[in-house]
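ugh ok fine here u go
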Amino acid sequence: MPKGVVLLADVIPSFLTKLCAPYFMHAIPYWVRILVCVWLSACGMLLIALTPGNTDGGTIATKMAGVVLASLSSGGGELTFVGLVHHYGPFSLAAWGSGTGGAGLIGAGAYAMATNSLGLSVKATLLASAGLPAVMLLSFFLVLPHGPLRHATRVGRTRPTRTDRAEEEEQEEAEQRESLLSAPDSPHIAGLDQKHADESLAWSRFRHNLARARGLFVPYMLPLLLVYVAEYTINQGVSPTLLFPLKETPFKQFRAFYPTYNAIYQAGVFISRSSTPFLRVHNLYLPSSLQVVNLAVLTLHALFHFIPSVYVVFAIVFWEGLLGGLVYVNTFAEISDTVPQEDREFSLSATTVSDSGGICLAGFLGMAFEVWLCNWQVRHGRNYCKKL
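structure:
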């Protein structure tokens, strides 16, 4: 199955979830969201693991359905937990960032250890991994203190926010209209007016959220989108072509380059996502712009091969991971610091659409980049990418 197809099946459902869910997710209790995310994740891995390994259409469709379910869980889980950060203070953001950064390292390392060191099959490894979402249940229901959530619920009921006040005004107007139309001889008209008032209230809330989302785009969403487009275009389209003669590298096979680049990148992401207690970046466009420079430099190297050593590429890839993690965690830190409290939970959740949107765009760009760069290298006497 083409790598790009799997990538898009993994990214697009997550992107659509993050795009749409913030406008209605507030009506769903956190514990319900967690249960749904755990169920989707476990079912997705079980579908992939238990489906036979042949390549007929039904098998591929079933495996793709598993990828989609896992993607929905990932998107819903990210916007849920990022929204939770609002209730637990600034250190919780650092813990979230560190956890997401470590997930790439630990997940890839655990899979490699299970399949290589322990000799488990891919099926057995995935079946064992299907139980890991249960950790999310334990962490939410047994480890996470629920006091801040209960307090936020009580405060939300007693202190109206700007949205609540707008809704109250709409409701008062609806009640006034209903009182004029609710004479005993016109119950049907009164019912229609109440239905209209409910629809008007829902539409007013939706418009308010759209206005909030538009206000988030330039200061927060755009730099996060840019950094993800640049870094995932590097990871998916450029990195597979950053190859050197084996005698100049520590590798014995060309296929060892890409996983090594990915591991180094993930190490940089982990470090920078854990950095907010010690380092804050307020100008989000600066690291985003530097990431675009990384994309340009590595693309030019793939074309003209001017970087003298693979170890220099290692350093650039590590720097790439640092920049990506910095923009991610500092975007949410800036929202936590600057957005009014009543808008903060929605803003944190809504902004997560930028990373999935960036990965989705990079998926299309990466597929084109990899083919173009590899063909260029072959035409210019470097056919290493054909030996992967």
